[in-house]
Amino acid sequence: MTTAEEFLADARRVADAILYEGYLLYPYRGSARKNQARFQFGVLMPPAYRDADASEPSASQTECLLEAPDDASVTVIARFLHLQRRQVEVEDGAGGYRPVAAVQVDDAEVITWDEAAEREHRSTVPLAALLSGGVDSAFEVPGSESVETLTGAAGHSAGRLVRRQAPLTAVICLRAERLPGPYGALRLRLKIENRTIPDGPLRRREDGLRFALIATHALIHVPGGRFLSLTDPPEWAAPYAGACSNVATWPVLAGPEECRELVLSSPVILYDHPRIAAESAGDLFDATEIDEILTLRTLALTDEERREARATDPRAAELLDRLDGLPPEMFERMHGAIRYLGPARGTGTGQPGGVPMAGVPQAGQPAAATQDRSVPWWDPGSDTSVSPESDHILIAGVRVARGSRVLMRPGARRADAQDLFLTGRSALVEAVLHDVDGHVHLAVTPEDDPAADLQRNHGRFLYFAPDEVEPLEAPT
Q: pTM value?
C-alpha cells in the first residue's frame, strides 16, 4: 500500500521541475538574450515593490475543495527559490575590492551571476483551528554573505566571489469554511505573503528580486482527506469549484492517480496528477519543452559556448556533464514512446466512449482483425487498418464518412469563443481520423467558407469529436 511519504515523494518530483522552470534557458549562457530577464514564474515581490511595478503580486492565494473528518490535520509545504547574488570582485589597488563583470582564472572564466537557493517552510495545523478562525504561520529566512577566493594553479589570487542573500519574511495564512448542503465539504484557503521590508529603494526589477520569493508553490497534504478536482469536479461541486478564487497559482490533484489527499498549487498551469515523463533523463529547466530537441541542441554548442555556460551557473555545468555522458539507449527513449491505451484497431465496429466507430475490433472478432503493432501507427500507407478517406463512423444511426454533410454543434468539449460562429453551420466531412489513443476525430470544411477550396488544397480543416456534429442525412 502506498504511504503518505511515497505520495509526497511522487509529487515533489513535479514540484522540483516547477521550482526551476525557466531558471536558465538554452543555450544556458548568461549572455544569451533570453537569460537577461529571468525568474518569470511564481515571483512574490515585497510589498514595497508595488511602488515601482504594481503588476507583480506580493501574495498568492489558493482555494480548493476538500472532504475531511473533523479531526484531520492540514500540512502546507511552501517552497520557493531565494536569490543569491554572486558578485566577482578584484583588488582595487588601495587594499580593497571593486566589482567586475568577469575575471579569468587560468583557462576558466568566472562571471557575475544571480544564483538561487532552495527554501522550504512546513506548517501543520488541525482542521478544527482553521474552521474556527484560521492560523497564520510567519517565518523568516536569514540573510547571508560568504567569500570565496579565486586562486589560479600557480597560487596567485585572481580575485574573489562574494555571495550575498537578503533576509526574507513571509507568512502562511490558512482558513477553512464549511460549504452549504448535505455533502459536508470544505473550502480551504491558503495565502502565501511576502512581508519582507527591503533595506533600500526598489527602482528596478533586479532590486525587487533580492527580496522576492521566486517560483513559489505549495504542497497541501491532508492525510485521510479527499480533495476534489477543480478541473473536473463532481456535478454537485461544480458551482463551488467555479467560485474558488486562485491568484497567481492553480491547484491540481498531485501524486499518483489513486491519491486524493494531496494538492500541488503551482504558478504554472498543470493538469491533475501531473507526472515527469519516464523518458526524461533530467531537468533542462524548461519542463514544457521536448527533452530530445533541447538535448541535441545543447550537444551542438561550440566549445566556447560550453565554457561560458559552465561559467554561468553550476547547474548549467552539471547539465552539460550529464548530457555529455548520456548513453545511446537514453536517446532512443527520448525519441518517443507509443503507449497503447485501448484495444488495437481492426475492421469491425465498436462503441468506445458511447460512440459507434468503424475500425475498432470487438469481442468475438478473430485475432486477424487486430492491428499488427510492428506497423507504424502514424503511417496509413503501411497500416491498412486505418484509412482516413474511406473509414466511417456511426452517429445517431447515420453512417458518416468522407463526403457526408453535418451540422457543427461545438460546445460539449470546447471552450473557444470562436466556436460560437460555427454553431449550426453545415460542413462537409473530409476525413475520419483515428488517433494513437483510440479516439476518433472528424476533419470538416464549412460549406459556406469562400476559401474552402484553398483550405482543402493546403490540408487545413476544422476538427470535431463525433458528439460535436449532427448528421444531415437520414438514417438508412
A: 0.71
